[in-house]
Design a protein that fits this description.
This protein is an all-alpha fold and about 450 residues long. The chain folds into two domains: about 5-215, Hypothetical protein af1432, CATH 1.10.3210.50; about 220-430, Hypothetical protein af1432, CATH 1.10.3210.50. The protein contains 23 helices and no strands. The protein has helices spanning about 5-20, 30-45, 50-60, 70-85, 90-105, 105-110, 115-130, 135-145, 165-170, 175-185, 190-195, 200-215, 225-240, 250-260, 270-280, 290-305, 310-320, 335-345, 350-365, 380-385, 390-400, 410-415, 420-435. α5 packs across α7 and α10 (about 175-185) packs antiparallel against α12 (about 200-215). The longest helix is centred in the N-terminal third of the chain and has 18 residues, at about 5-20. It binds fe (ii) ion (2 copies).
């Protein structure tokens, strides 16, 4: 590139940065910067490509995307005006728009014009960033931001034949993986991109398979107790608005896991296990500004339900002593009832669903996903752990990777098999694919 091209590219980068600063749903400027860096890597193998054109198209490729803008036509005009202000050759401007208009997955469904080598490199770079662990975080974040359900076991993935059908679909995030992201590897243009995507493609497939395998919801029909149904409703009302990984589906999964563990412990007091499960996050310090007030509310609710005082005391003792942080300054004793509740909760902090939960917690608390310069800490006290300003990836090292050794029951250890692996694959993949952008 010559000097004026470099200066123009800097202007284009600033222009794109401005536009993407408004997006925090998988289309932030970091995505754009990664696509640029990936294209640079691909360009090393294609010296005949037009570097300026490729990089300019990378920077601008999502600046008037239909998914992101209500009026994408008006937005495209603004991009055109901006490019004209740089006094680029008319021909270059036409080529940039031609690449962007024809590169997307949706555009390819309508049989748009084939891309030349420059367009193929831009398209491959964008598709590489739609595969792998970082792509999983992007897809999950898009779903989280737009309130799209994570998974619906009843849903069947569709094969789209037109852009219109694809745009109209309201699939869950996991079905979206099957309908779009699973297809990308075979749609890559360059051999280099294909080589770069082998591990990335494998990861997204493993991730989806893990979500499906882990999906265990409570079965309200098995409750057989009116008071448990009322307690479950109380939990629903407490968690229904939550979006930081402690939503009612977390509670339902923990109850479902507890019901599974209980199958082998027929002599255990089922009522206390399930009542504790439903209430276990109802006055969590992380979730409530005044957790003490919330705790009093829970106790009053149980008293009103005419639950015996010793059962209430037991439920509250387990909740107060079961958490990871409660056990940091010394192991707390729990009986089998408490151990089952603790195991069920810990299982939902392990695996692919736990990856989603950790990410949700990070997004809702504006945590960084990853920063190689912030190292995970070990042997933390409860206070140090609570006052953590760490990254989401460090949370795996500081808590989630430690859970498999802390399970109480054989059944939980059995259910945990494989859950550790997907979390390690995720973290290793993020570290491997991370592209440091300023
Ligand atoms: Fe993109
Ligand atoms: Fe929990």
């Amino acid at each position: 590139m010559n000097n004026s091209q470099e200066l123009n590219l800097r202007e284009i980068s600033n222009f794109a940065a401005d536009i993407h600063s408004n997006f925090n749903e998988g289309h932030d400027f970091e995505h754009i910067q990664r696509v640029v860096e990936l294209a640079k890597e691909l360009l090393l193998d294609y010296p005949q490509a037009d570097e300026f054109l490729v990089l300019a198209a990378c920077y601008l490729h999502d600046t008037y995307d239909e998914k992101l803008f209500d009026d994408s036509i008006k937005q495209k005009e603004a991009v055109k005006e901006f490019l004209k202000s740089l006094e680029l050759d008319e021909d270059i401007i036409i080529q940039i728009f031609s690449i962007i208009d024809n590169m997307s997955f949706a555009a390819s469904l309508d049989g748009k014009a084939p891309l030349d080598l420059n367009g193929q490199i831009v398209q491959d770079a964008d598709r590489i960033d739609s595969l792998g662990p970082i792509a999983v975080t992007r897809a999950l974040q898009f779903g989280w931001y737009h309130n799209i359900p994570l998974y619906n076991p009843e849903e069947v993935a569709q094969i789209f034949t037109s852009k219109e059908d694809y745009r109209k679909a309201d699939s869950s995030t996991i079905t979206h993986f099957k309908e779009r992201l699973f297809l990308l590897k075979d749609m890559l243009n360059t051999k280099q991109a294909q080589d770069m995507c082998f591990e990335r493609d494998k990861f997204i497939r493993d991730f989806v398979a893990a979500i499906e395998a882990e999906w265990v919801m409570d079965n309200p029909a098995l409750l057989n107790d009116e008071k448990l149904v009322i307690i479950r409703d109380f939990a629903y009302n407490t968690h229904s608005e939550n979006n930081d990984g402690h939503d009612f589906n977390h509670i339902r999964r923990v109850a479902g896991l507890a019901q599974k563990i209980l199958e082998t412990y027929s002599h255990v007091d089922k009522f206390t296990v399930l009542a504790t499960v439903y209430l276990h996050d109802c006055y969590d310090q992380k979730l409530f500004v005044d957790s003490l007030e919330q705790k009093v509310k829970v106790i009053n609710f149980l008293s009103k339900l005419e639950i015996e005082q010793d059962v209430i005391d037991k439920i509250i003792y387990i909740i107060d002593n079961m958490s990871f942080s409660a056990n940091m300054d010394g192991q707390k004793e729990l009986d089998l009832v408490g151990q089952i509740v603790q195991d069920a909760d810990r299982l939902d902090s392990m695996g692919a669903i736990a990856i989603n939960r950790a990410l949700e917690y990070g997004w809702s608390h504006s945590r960084k996903l990853y920063d190689p310069s912030i190292k995970p800490r070990h042997d933390l006290s409860k206070d140090e752990y609570r006052n953590s300003e760490g990254t989401t990836i460090n949370h795996f090292y500081e808590k989630l990777f430690l859970l498999s050794d802390k399970l109480n029951t054989e059944e939980a250890r059995e259910l945990a098999k494989g859950r550790d692996q997907i979390m390690h694959d995720f973290v290793t993949g993020i570290e491997r694919d991370w592209i440091e952008v300023s």
